[in-house]
Amino acid sequence: MKYNATGGDALSLISIYEISKILGSSLDLEKTLHDVLNLLSSYLQMRRGVVALQGEGGKDIRILAASGLSRRAVMDGQCGFPPAVIDRVIGSGVPMVVGNAVTDPAFENYLSHADAEAGDVISVIAVPIKINGESAGLLSIEREWESDLQFKFETDVRFLTMVANLIGQTVRMHHSVANDRDRLMREKVALEKRLREDLQGVDGEDLAIGNIIGDSKAMRRVFAEIQQVAPTRSTVLLRGESGTGKELIARAVHTLSPRVDKPFIKVNCAALPETLLESELFGHEKGAFTGATQDRKGRFEQAAGGTLFLDEIGEISASFQAKLLRVLQEGEFERVGGNKTLHVDFRLVCATNKNLEAAVAAGEFRADLYYRINVVPVFLPPLRDRKEDIPALVEHFLARFNEENGRSLDIASDAMGVFQHCHFPGNVRELENCVNRVATMTRGDVIEDVDLPCQRDQCLSSVLWQERADASGMPVGGMAPMEARRQRVPLSAVSGARPSSPGEAPMRRSPPAAAVPPIAPVEAPADDHLLDDDYEDGGGLTPRERLVAAMEKSGWVQAKAARMLGLTPRQIGYALKKYNIEVKRL
To answer: Where is this region: Disordered (predicted)?
Structure first.
């Protein structure tokens, strides 16, 4: 059938409306353009439509859609639309109308492919697709006309120009989305790479915080968390064993925050009884109690606009927890002996070496206060989990000792190796004390391994960090190592320290369980030298000591201990009974 006119204004308006819906319905550009051409084929009775677009940068012009052909066929180049026509329309930026393309040599192959019949008058109307005012593509349709009709193409050109403008806006939107997606992906990859480098010790200068020493993966993770949380107002809870440097990290949070020019106030909650702690934090009015001769601002008021650091917050009493909760929730309080409500703005940083979760479960710590302070928890690693930082810490403490005492001590590599292989249950604080003690007692200018107390069986720390007498496996003086708390194993199994037996000198050391020398297997318990009371191995350990060390290393599983010592489970059981060793149930 042959058509001789474009639809009326109503039909054109409906077509524009439907095309706009199609263009906004999908981010699949090629599918969208195919749907637009199919709609044009229905509304304009065209024989074929083509959409060609330039790639970004004005290169790689290719046909993206052609009605009557599948997307695969278009990709395979089966459309055959003349490239010269595409270049001409895009280059000139003006529409092109070919009244009878059948007689135009440029369309010979294309119309032949379109199965034009002899005598047909097929017109081609092509308009440029403009993006940001620049021609970047082409929209073309074919129309079949009566041969003796006076052609008037103005309506078709105007209509197709509107469609081409809609396509141009859609293509620009797709390019923008694609560019944003690529940019975000590049940023994501860059951030992930930087994070991996940060955690692997690369580009360490960017993560270093003040005078906090540490370049290990564990400390770099802490530095990254601190730098992220410091600029905010969120409450920070520092978790970690005693001696891991929680106060230094708290000060770093303040220094890196917008409150750096305001006060940094610190309070040790465990150092004061409840009555004094209340006055210390809230302040008091004159005459509130005996000795209150004048008004006194509390630490909350002193920290106004700045940061308040509450150390050992897990040690406060239940009654004081309720008083503290109100201040943290409402930001208001009254001084002791006063009735005027004061409002204060401060950033709270708390620290504890206590297992707060266990305390909440046991009813020793209020759950609502726990949720109030546990907004952003930061876990500080124990020194045994970042042994690669020990050399730098030793050098730092030794340099400070030299400066304070007017000496010029150096440390030998073998002595540094001893430091690196110690577990230091007291963490950085214990390491600092050890360095100062060794430096003080060293007579020469170089600290050798023989100068370290542990090399002469004179280390007192092993006495302090023994497991408790109640066999709970928890150390004296703070949080146990994470492994011991998680598995409930004695500290000696983690740190290498060995509890003393009744009547045994507390200064005697035993090597870590990993270093337990093997015992040659024997056929019968009666002949086993492990059972000989007068036997000692080359490391100076009695059979009982070697057996206890092996049991601790194996988690008190007799079968594992037997394999470690090269004995049978029956021989292990016999030895345990002989030396009256109670098997611990974990």
So the answer is: 492-541
> Is 356:315 a contact under the CB 8 Å cutoff?
no
Residue 492 vs residue 414, higher pLDDT: 414
Of residues 227, 242, 248, the one with CA closest to residue 396 = 248
- In the numeric block, which tokens belong to residue 482? 């994470």
Quickly list H helices, 362-443: 367-373, 390-405, 413-420, 427-441
H or E stretch covering 179 = helix 154-199
How large is the C-alpha radius of gyration of the chain? 41
Written as one letter, the residue type at 290 is T
User: What is the pTM for the complete model shown?
Assistant: 0.48
Residues 67 and 153 in one domain: yes
What is the distance, to the nearest Å, from the Cα of residue 578 to the centroid of all Cα atoms in its chain?
53
Q: How far is it, in rounded angstroms, from Cα 282 to Cα 299?
A: 7
Domain count, the chain: 4
* Shared-domain flag, residues 337 and 412: no
- Whether residues 38 and 117 share a domain: the answer is yes
Q: Are 328 and 412 in the same domain?
A: no
Which secondary-structure segment (H or E) carries 311?
strand 307-311
Which amino acid appears at position 511 of this protein?
Answer: P
Tokens of 59: 């290169």
Average pLDDT, stretch 162-179? 83
Name the residue range of residue 105's domain. Answer: 9-177
Query: How many other C-beta atoms lie within 10 A of the C-beta of residue 564?
Result: 18
pLDDT of residue 541: 74
- Do 267 and 126 belong together in one domain? no
Q: In angstroms, rounded to a whole number, what is the distance separating the alpha carbons of residues 475 and 482?
A: 12
Instruction: Choose the final residue of a domain: 364, 379, 394.
Output: 379
For residue 406, the domain's CATH number is 1.10.8.60
The H-or-E segment that residue 504 falls in is none
- Where b means 16+ CB within 10 Å and e means fewer, 394-423 reads beebbeebeeeeeeebebeeebbebbeebb
